[in-house]
Write a structure and sequence with these properties.
With about 45 residues, this protein is mostly beta strands. It contains no helices and three strands. A three-stranded antiparallel sheet has the order 1-2-3, with no helix packed on it.
């Protein structure tokens, strides 16, 4: 699957200076120098 969930801001510092980072769902924040990964679980998922 080549589609990505695109974040609007960093979950750690809140800045918007993000770039894709190695592999599926990985993002790198240039402001706080952290990398994180997103994973889409679905819509209306029951726990």
């Amino acid at each position: 699957m080549s589609e990505r969930a695109v974040p609007f801001h960093c979950p750690y510092c809140g800045e918007e200076d993000l770039e894709p980072y190695e592999g599926d769902g990985g993002w790198y924040c240039r402001s706080c120098i952290r990398a994180f990964k997103l994973k889409f679980l679905g819509i209306g998922v029951r726990s």
